[in-house]
Amino acid sequence: MSENEHAFSGPSTAPIPVTGFDAAGIHCGIKPTGAPDLAMIASPTACRAAAVFTQNAFPAAPVLYDRELLRTNPDGTHAVVINSGNANACTSAEGNANARRMAESAEKCLGSTDNTAFVMSTGVIGVQLPIGVVEAGIPQVAAELRPDGWEDAAAGIMTTDVFPKWASSQAEIGGSTVTITGIGKGAGMIHPNMATMLAALATDANIAQPLLQKALASAVSGSFNRISVDGDTSTNDTVLVLTNGAAGNAEIVEEGADYEAFLQALTEASAELAKLIVRNGEGVTKFVTIQVEGAVSDGEAHQVANSIAKSPLVKTAFFGHDANWGRILCAVGYSGATVDPNKAHLFIAAGQPQDNNAELQLVDAGTPTDYAEEDASAIFAESEISARVSLGLGEGAATVWTCDLSYEYVSINAEYRT
Question: In this model, does residue 275 exceed pLDDT 70?
Answer without folding.
Answer: yes
